[in-house]
């Protein structure tokens, strides 16, 4: 990306999607302090996300899917308190979803599917009161599905498929009255489907 791009300090929206851009995301991205939307998806970007990205605290939408970004998800994601849409899928990120990310209470849609992520879903997911779309399929997540997910009452799509989750399906999922799609296939879930969940999906 040319240096001159980062001198447009009044820029609020940067859309570079579906090109053949390569290389790393420069640290100068942090100079674009008024950015609200940043779309870099469907390119050939590589490397890790620069720390300066997390200084853009007005950022509401970050779409960087279908690239070759790698590294762990920074704890600094928690500084992006106004973030509503975060699409990270189809990269090669590893490590876990940092606890700080669950502090982004304005988040509406989050997907990190098709990466190399692992670890568990934090019980803090219940704090994400505006969350409607949560897609983490095709990773290496494990552990139990936390019952506190039922506190994210705006959820309409929950996709945990093709991971290593174990334990039983929490009965509290039936409290998600806005749920339209629940996908947990391809895991290590045991036990029975809770009766109240069956009754809910029949109504």
Question: Please, could you describe this protein's structure?
Answer:
The chain is mainly β and 203 residues long. The chain is built from one helix and 16 strands. It has one helix at residues 195-202; strands at residues 13-15, 22-24, 37-39, 44-47, 61-63, 68-72, 85-87, 92-95, 109-111, 116-119, 133-135, 140-143, 157-159, 164-167, 181-183, 188-189. The strands form two sheets. It has an eight-stranded parallel β-sheet with strand order 1-3-5-7-9-11-13-15, with no helix packed on it. The protein has an eight-stranded parallel β-sheet with strand order 2-4-6-8-10-12-14-16, with no helix packed on it. It is elongated, with a radius of gyration of 18 Å.
Short description:
Helix content is 4%, strand content 27%.
Name the descriptors.
4% helix, mainly beta, 16 strands, elongated, 203 residues, 8-stranded parallel beta sheet
Instruction: Report the helical percentage.
Output: under 10%
Pattern of helices and strands: EEEEEEEEEEEEEEEEH
Percent range for β-strand residues: 25-35%
Give the N-terminus to C-terminus distance in angstroms.
Answer: 52 Å
Uncertain runs with pLDDT below 50, 5 residues or more?
none
Overall structural class, as computed from helix and strand content, comes to mainly beta
Q: How many β-strand stretches?
A: 16
| Net shape | elongated
Please count the helical segments. Answer: 1
Average pLDDT metric: 94
Question: What is the radius of gyration computed over CA atoms, rounded to a whole number of angstroms?
Answer: 18 Å
Give the spatial strand order of the biggest sheet. Answer: 1-3-5-7-9-11-13-15
Largest pleated sheet? 8 strands, parallel
